[in-house]
Amino acid sequence: MNFNLSTEQMMVRDLCRNLAKNEIIPIAEELDKTGQFPYEVWKKMAGLGIAVFPFLKSAGDWNWIGFP
Q: Which of 2, 6, 24, 59 is most deeply packed, by most CB within 10 A?
């Protein structure tokens, strides 16, 4: 069994890692103190397709929606 990440998986990992390093970590302490929600970061994540909400369209049918 191969447990190595594919090239695509490594790209997603690196994308998320860089987003966290450059966008989230620098503001995390302030967000914790103020309780603010990072809407601008969320918009970036949604634009990249890594921030979505599940909505139930009908019985047993989920629809994943991102908010760009």
A: 24
The DSSP secondary-structure symbol of 40 reads H
pLDDT tens per residue, range 18-61? 999 999 999 999 999 999 999 899 889 988 888 876 665 665 66
Question: CA gyration radius for the chain?
Answer: 15
Buried-state track 8-34, b at ≥16 Cβ within 10 A, e below 16: eeeeeeeeeeebeeeeeeeeeeeeeee
Helical packing angle, 39-48 and 7-19, nearest 10°: 170
Task: Give whole-number Cα distances, 34 to 1, 27, 28, 29, 30, in Å.
Answer: 46, 11, 10, 9, 6
